[in-house]
Specification:
468 residues, alpha/beta, Rossmann fold, Nucleotidyltransferase, domain 5, 2 domains, eight-stranded mixed β-sheet, seven-stranded mixed β-sheet, 14 helices, 15 strands, 16% strand
């Protein structure tokens, strides 16, 4: 039998880099129409043809996506080269190499791959997967024992900005922020845009024109692969701009400052065990502007994974912070929490455990859509660029999770609960405890030509504490 050959068109320069990369985790993409899925399929086929016995797993988030983007194209590409088992969704090559195709629509679907060993794992559109799913797959990315030292285990990812996995992908491959035993040399990111894909631009120039004409934020995300312009962000108005930390205009994040004695201090809380718990402390100024000054976020280094602290330990820590922190000690602090902590059907309620530690709450209004609207109202900038909500820059949990939250695919006004939404939940409880009307942006007055008129014009300075 003659050698098996695979005929493919030449890759573009960015795809060539993807084919040649040898690090542990290789991520290709960043924008629409960069030729990501094609590169993933071809790389898997080349690996299986070149390395006998290689065991590969190629994943998409849903079955329709898997069928459209990989099963059908691979059937055409590998016709006469590999046999396909439709029931098991496996392509088997004459040299014993295999490509298994799968999907993980629900977060726990990934558990079916635990205990199995794959030399190569591909996550196509990786930002649609959670960090939990990525970490589970990493456990299965180990030598299958079939390749006899010819190949080191490796994972390939492709993706665009946005999606439930936006943050963990951005941290590892774009921002390159690493923890514990994560090694920078293990991560390679190959950014690609439609402009790198000459074949596609020639085939469909109208699509390129469509991308170029998108609204600014969507265009930056989809056309340019800008990871700071998250497509589909639920709180798209949220701005974290260091250039404005001092003047507090057109930013929500600001430098911390000592809280004036006359301001109210409040606490908001969302309980969690397997998932993170969240406690936020807020200061309220004389104009009703709220400032998130501190937070206690019960999350492990794996995003959206809880510390599994029992309620008593959580409230002991909250009480300690309130006794010791200079912004909080000696203050009368009111609290609001999800009504579910009053549930005593299984014995002592969470609220009762809190009260034993001297931590008291009022039952919050947990209506979702009105709560999200109150957060939107708070984040809106007035005609002078000032919002009704500020976040101290030390509140890293809020700054990390809020920008990454996405819209629900089915409930168009609601948040996708697959995201890390615990800080968002306790924030909306607090916002609902002191609701405001939408910010009315006044029409700008015409420029006055007469200097005497300018002198007569009454001008009210901005609130002193917004520039405190």
């Amino acid at each position: 039998m003659g050698a098996v050959k695979l005929f493919i068109p030449p890759p573009n320069p960015k795809q060539q880099l993807f084919f040649e990369a040898r690090s542990r985790y290789i991520n290709y993409g960043g924008a629409r129409a960069g030729g990501k899925s094609w590169a993933m399929r071809i790389k898997f086929a080349l690996l299986c043809l070149g390395i006998p016995g290689l065991q590969c797993l190629l994943l998409r988030r849903t079955l329709p996506e898997l069928t459209e983007n990989h099963v059908q194209p691979l059937l055409k590409l590998l016709k006469g080269i590999a046999c396909y088992n439709k029931q098991e969704k496996v392509f088997t090559f004459p040299n014993g190499s295999r490509i298994k195709l799968g999907y993980c629509k629900n977060e726990d679907d990934v558990l079916q791959y635990q205990g199995q060993a794959y030399d190569v794992i591909g996550m196509d559109e990786a930002t649609l997967f959670t960090e939990f799913q990525f970490n589970c797959l990493r456990e299965s990315n180990r030598s299958s024992g079939m390749v006899r030292g010819q190949f080191s285990p490796r994972m390939y990812l492709t993706c665009n900005p946005g999606g439930v996995g936006h943050h963990w992908v951005k941290r590892l491959f774009v921002d390159r922020i690493y923890r514990d035993k994560e090694r920078p040399e293990d991560y390679t990111f190959i950014p690609a845009q439609v402009y790198d894909n000459a074949a596609f631009m020639e085939m469909d120039p109208d699509y390129v024109a469509q991308l170029e004409s998108l609204p600014e934020k969507r265009r930056r995300s989809m056309l340019l692969g800008d990871w700071n312009a998250i497509e589909g962000a639920f709180f798209e108005e949220f701005v974290d701009d260091p250039a404005h930390y001092e003047d507090r205009r057109f930013t929500h994040v600001i430098e911390p400052f000592d809280i004036p004695k006359g301001w109210s201090i409040c606490r908001s809380f969302d309980f969690g065990y397997n998932k993170p718990f969240s406690c936020g402390w807020w200061a309220v100024d004389y104009d009703g502007v709220i400032y998130r000054i501190l937070e206690l976020y019960g999350c492990t280094e794996i995003h959206n994974e809880g510390l599994k602290w029992p309620p008593n330990k959580i409230f002991e820590e909250i009480a300690r912070v309130e006794r010791e922190h200079p912004w909080l000690k000696g203050k009368r602090i009111t609290g609001v929490a999800d009504p579910s902590i009053w549930d005593a059907s299984r014995g002592e309620s969470v609220e009762e455990m809190a009260a034993k530690q001297g931590v008291y709450f009022a039952s919050g209004d947990n209506a979702r859509i009105p709560g999200w609207m109150q957060m939107h109202y708070r984040m809106a900038f007035d005609e002078n660029g000032y919002p009704m909500m500020y976040i101290f820059k030390n509140c890293k949990g809020f700054r990390r999770t809020i920008p990454a939250l996405q819209y629900d695919d089915h409930k168009v006004e609601d948040l996708n609960t697959d995201g890390e939404d615990h800080i968002a939940d306790e924030t909306r409880y607090f916002c609902m405890s002191r609701p405001i009307a939408p910010t009315a942006v006044k029409e700008k007055k015409p420029v006055l030509d007469d200097p005497l008129d300018l002198m007569k014009e009454k001008r009210n300075p901005h609130n002193l504490f917004r520039r405190y």
